[in-house]
Write a structure and sequence with these properties.
Blueprint (H helix, E strand, L loop, with lengths): L2 H19 L5 H15 L3 H14 L4 H13 L3 H14 L4 H13 L3 H14 L4 H13 L3 H14 L4 H13 L3 H14 L4 H13 L3 H14 L3 H13 L3 H14 L4 H18 L2 H17 L4 H11 L1
Helix pairs in contact: 1-2, 2-3, 3-4, 4-5, 4-6, 5-6, 6-7, 6-8, 7-8, 8-9, 8-10, 9-10, 10-11, 10-12, 11-12, 12-13, 13-14, 14-15, 14-16, 15-16, 16-17, 17-18
Amino acid sequence: MSRSLACVVVAAVSVVSLLGMVGCANQDAVNSYVDAVMLDEMNNDQEAIAKLQKAVASNPKFALAWSLMGEIYQKNNELEQSANAYEKATSLNRWSYKDFFNLGKVYQSLNKFTASVRAYVRATEISPNSGEAHLGAAQAYYQLKDYKTALRYGKKAGVLDPNQADVQSLLGDVFGASKEYDPAIAAYKRALEVDANNPQVNAALALMYLRTNKVEAAHELLSGVVANNPTSSAYQQLGYANLKLKRVDDAVAAYRKAVELDEKDWSAHKGLGVALMLASGVKNDLALKEEAITQWQLSLKLQPEQPKLMELLEKYQR
């Protein structure tokens, strides 16, 4: 037996022995839990789960068994089962920071943000100095569009973990969504001081530059982003920056790349149509105009709810 495995087993035996002394778990549950700890250490996850299910069948109030079950399901990305196990664990032990935090993460991965908020907030109550729990709560509130509360938890996370790039990036997202562009720019810059090559943060900063009419700065950033991490979204932003700079041919090229990377992105087709229509006007080229109309039609096919684009299409089809 490896030293790490021996340590785990000794710790498990000590814990469950104490539980047995106070009458919290019967002997069958204890034995099954110890077996599960050993199996988990050896990455025999299915067998470990079977042992844990046996443990909770013997003693449904065995919080440690539910907790470990949640961990194993979580690492195997079986998120619904993980959430159910953590819910049991947290209902039995209202002071387990680990279980509430992990429950928040699992619900966040499931896009169940109201439930995620509830778990993360409880984790912050149990451990008020946990930066990761405050960040998790802020991220979940952001997804719920409760930007005021997201900012409160995000700022607290920033105090607790001032050198955490994810915190500053999240604050940038919150400020940006609240249309507070200068604080958003400052937050993204702080994030890049820690993680300079993060393409998502660079793209987000570029978007803030575009919204504050700092187009040359946005173009420079986006050129680096598409060189290192080309995505349809980044190429669309680059195309828009080129249009603002009156570089129509470059805009067409960028939007073509965006469509190439994601043919089902309706906004990429729409942007390409705009660039092509402008190019057709500059060059008096009817073929470019027809191609622009085709791109708009594709965009409307993918996303019919675009009344302004429909009006534009009708205008140019006359």
